[in-house]
Amino acid sequence: MKLPVIALATITGIAHASPYLTSVNGHEGIGSAPLGSFGPTITLDLSGINSWDLQGDDSNEQLAVYQPMFNWVIGVSWDVTIVTNGGSWLSEAVIGFEDELFLTPGIGNDFAGTLSFSSGGMVDLIGEGLDFFYSPDGFLDIEFFESFDDVADEVDAYFAAGSTIQVKFAYPAPGSLALLGFAGIGASRRRR
């Protein structure tokens, strides 16, 4: 029997988003901060990114998105196709944002195979109580991992060609958070 490593938190709000998005320690969001300016929405190509082992494992692949000025994540969307290897399930592939927010596109699909998943548009993280600030170094770290590791140091799943996620950024009104540097956008793939 497979036991999930990440316990799903009970989330209130829009029904279509709640099964897919979870957070740590019952994160309540920070939407009470005065809304300042909306920043960019960045599309990240996940084509060929692998999902290896449990969260934090050195084998796991990551993206680091450089966006120092707008470091408040207020929305996320996804259009992905997950392909599993061996006995790994579609429900085990997880995308972790800064250890704050966890996206499990294949949740409930406890079987191996290939399947596409879509959010059907941008999910309002403020409305879901899941918005968050990320580290002041200007990098939003995104880790790809498995909630259950079928075989250590082996790829359990990967994201097929054309798989993307979008992240929407903002910053609170001046005075509620010091603005950091000039805006810059960049992403790099790396392994821990």
Write a brief structural summary.
By secondary structure, the chain is mostly beta strands. It is 2% helix and 41% strand.
Number of DSSP-assigned strands = 14
Q: Class in CATH?
A: Mainly Beta
Q: Average pLDDT across residues?
A: 79
Q: Termini, distance in Å?
A: 29 Å
Q: How many DSSP H or I helices?
A: 1
Largest sheet: 8 strands, antiparallel
Q: Structural class, judged by helices and strands?
A: mainly beta
**CATH architecture descriptor text:** Sandwich
Give me the Rg, rounded.
Answer: 16 Å
Beta percentage is: 35-45%
CATH topology: Jelly Rolls
Q: Overall 3D geometry?
A: globular
Helix content: under 10%
Count of individual domains: 1
Provide the low-confidence segments as ranges.
Answer: 1-17, 175-192
Q: SSE string, helix = H, strand = E?
A: EEEEEEEEEHEEEEE
Describe the structure.
With 192 residues, this protein is mainly beta. The protein has one domain: Sandwich (Jelly Rolls), CATH 2.60.120. It has one helix at 125-128; strands at 21-23, 35-45, 50-51, 61-66, 72-84, 93-97, 101-103, 114-118, 123-124, 132-133, 139-146, 157-159, 164-172, 186-191. Strand 6 (93-97) and strand 7 (101-103) form a beta hairpin. Residues 1-17 and 175-192 have low confidence and may be disordered.
